Amino acid sequence: MTITAPFFGPLVSVHNLEVYFAVPHKGATVKAVDGVTFDVELGKTLGIIGESGSGKSTLGRALIGLVRPTGGSVLHEGEDPFELSRREFASHRRNYVTVFQDPSSALDPRMTIAQSVREPLDIVGQLSRPDRDARVVELLERVGLNPVHAQRYPHELSGGQKQRANIARALTLNPKLIVCDEVVAALDVSIQADILNLFADLQRAFNLTYVFISHDLGVVAHVSDYIGVMYLGKLVEFGPADRLMRAPLHPYTQALLSAEPCALPAKLRTKKRIILEGEVPSPLDPPSGCRFRTRCWLARDICATAEPLPRMVRPDQRVACHFADEAVLSPSPPGVTSFVVNTAL
Amino acid sequence: MTAMAPSAKTGTASKPLLAVDNLSIFFGRGAQETCVVSNLSFSIQPSEMIGIVGESGCGKSATALSLLRLLPSENSRISGHINFDGLDLAQLGEGDMQKIRGRRIAMIFQEPMSALDPVFTVGHQISETIRAHFGVGRREARERAIDALAAVGIAAPAQRYHEYSAQLSGGMRQRVLIAIALSCEPRLLIADEPTTALDVTVQSQIVDLLTDLASRRSMALVFITHDLGVVAEACSRVITMYAGQLVEDGNVDDVLTHPLHPYTSGLLCSLPRLSAPKTVLPAIPGRVPRTFDQTGCRFEDRCGFRLDKCSVAQPVLERDYRKARCCRVDELILPGAVR
């Protein structure tokens, strides 16, 4: 452990982040992440929700320096990782790691679990061989795998066990931030509960910071302190998890929350569904002005011409919508009588 | 293999549309043969919507495929009876079965991309089904296909008719599959994880579409899913499967409020809930056994309510139109989705 000067700001500070991808032959640009600003506090969990193609995963990659922003900045403890020299960057990125969705493809099929978990230590090369092996055993134990599993190959383990191995490997070099991109999507509910408990446990033990990317609202609501909602590259709403879940401000957040099926008997399912028309438009040709306007029941002329900027409607809760105040007052599309987000779920 | 499992006694007294009786499914040949579904019995009333839930490997999809006899005959085998409209599908010849598939019982699959043929237009694939079952001409099949596309909420169906699956979005493809499935007005639709590959906002569109079409056409619906939320919203009855067996069968609201089997209760409790963030989720310890050859309760090793009497074979017990494969059904009061 090295001792550095203490930094009191947020662990990660994202300012006006833009990640654009050029599409070959079409002369078009996909604005996967477009002007996103937020902070991630040390020791907290930020949840990112949104539909496929909303830019969640690209944002996650940009947060740990896996993709270079085309505009804006991602600061790690006040430092821009892309300003570092190659050598500095290599050691810097140990603190910012990720766990991917598919536990099988994230592990090398020709390496045993122990080899996969030890690989980062081998590369860093600070510890002696016996110390590295001891560290692997310790890590695997920490995530609930025993030495027998260590000698197995990925195909010999179940999905949940493989995901545990992936988590152990992410922990190898004592990271500060772990970006968890759909880490439980491929798992059955009972295994999913186990893995979520493990994440919570590790966070307490190591004061880890998580960015939890998921399309499963239940999972995100369960683990997060803060939640950001993405739609077509834009962060449309950002705020404390409990408030955002209880009283969403952006029409898209409201629709997303109401679409989540809840496992409750009919008499307790008080919430009314907001059925959005159509699907997410192509990111190659997003709508002008507010990108959600084509599916929004509050949309008016201004939504097509002026892009809504994020603003604080309630303390700590930022929303990018011209009519967010109205959405709070009359939060339902025509035909829907009431809108109550079910907190019993 | 003891006494005949009770059948057709659930819910209403009318004649069931489908009655599965002692269905067992075996994979593999000779000494390698393993039983993936054992002695499954349940029935479906006309226009009833039921959900079949359980974790991966519990036999949900194998059951669905066996109802249409879609399992490969060279390395799988089924025993028992599948009574549908006076016919036993388990014994039916391949030619007669072909007349049932698509026409009387239709199925939609999880991955709409791989279920559609990329080299034919979607319209062609719908009219193909219509022509095969009704023997109508090209023109009439085309008209019916366009009607079918309109019925599943596809805008400009006459244009979409000429498009290929690659030109459509995921939700649109799933709508096309539903159009194909419903084009022959089946009495029963089996939907195997129809919304798993879709986003929540599209998922809610598809679930609403399916339940709406099913109730308007008085078609029965079997929803195979691991998502208890979808079952709660779409179905009136739910069957829980575990390790190839039926472990619980009952009215959705009853099961969600007071599950009778510890496994169903475990599934409901392990769902993250918005009202209790950052708490420890009660996960079910262990995992589904790899082989289902134990004599006693198959859930015994993972169950928190296990007693000595659990190590003998557990029959399905009936309680007020509900069923559970648990010998402690009368003693246990298990937590459900409501707390």
In words, what does this structure look like?
The complex is a heterodimer of chains A (345) and B (339). Residues 329-345 of chain A have low confidence and may be disordered. In chain A, the strands form two sheets. An eight-stranded mixed beta sheet of chain A has the order 5-6-7-3-8-9-11-10, sandwiched between helices. Chain A has a three-stranded antiparallel beta sheet with strand order 2-1-4. In chain A, α3 (113-124) packs across α4 (129-142) and α4 (129-142) crosses α6 (159-171). Chain A is α/β, with parallel strands linked by helices and 345 residues long. Chain A contains twelve helices and eleven strands. The longest helix of chain A has 18 residues, at 189-206. With 339 residues, chain B is an alpha/beta fold. Chain B has helices at 60-67, 94-100, 112-115, 122-134, 138-151, 157-160, 170-182, 200-216, 228-234, 252-257, 262-269, and strands spanning 18-27, 34-44, 49-53, 76-84, 87-88, 105-108, 188-192, 220-224, 237-242, 245-251, 317-319, 322-324. In chain B, the strands form two sheets. Chain B has an eight-stranded mixed beta sheet with strand order 6-7-8-3-9-10-12-11, sandwiched between helices. A four-stranded antiparallel beta sheet of chain B has the order 2-1-4-5, with helices on one face. In chain B, β7 (188-192), α8 (200-216) and β8 (220-224) form a beta-alpha-beta unit. In chain B, α4 (122-134) packs across α5 (138-151), α5 packs across α7 (170-182) and α7 (170-182) packs parallel to α8 (200-216). At the A-B interface, α7, α8, α9 and α10 of A face α7, α8, α9, α10 and α11 of B.
Keywords:
heterodimer; A: 345 residues; alpha/beta; 8-stranded mixed sheet; 3-stranded antiparallel sheet; 12 helices; 11 strands; 32% helix; globular; disordered C terminus; B: 339 residues; 4-stranded antiparallel sheet; 11 helices
What's the helix and strand layout?
The complex is a heterodimer of chains A (345) and B (339).
Chain A lengths: L11 E12 L4 E13 L4 E5 L6 H8 L7 E6 L9 H7 L3 E4 L13 H12 L4 H14 L4 H4 L8 H13 L5 E5 L7 H18 L2 E5 L3 H7 L2 E6 L2 E7 H6 L4 H9 L41 H5 L5 E4 L2 E3 L4 H6 L16
Parallel strand pairs in A: 3-7, 3-8, 5-6, 6-7
Antiparallel strand pairs in A: 1-2, 1-4, 8-9, 9-11, 10-11
Helix pairs in contact in A: 3-4, 3-6, 4-6
Chain B lengths: L17 E10 L6 E11 L4 E5 L6 H8 L8 E9 L2 E2 L5 H7 L4 E4 L3 H4 L6 H13 L3 H14 L5 H4 L9 H13 L5 E5 L7 H17 L3 E5 L3 H7 L2 E6 L2 E7 H6 L4 H8 L47 E3 L2 E3 L15
Parallel strand pairs in B: 3-8, 3-9, 6-7, 7-8
Antiparallel strand pairs in B: 1-2, 1-4, 4-5, 9-10, 10-12, 11-12
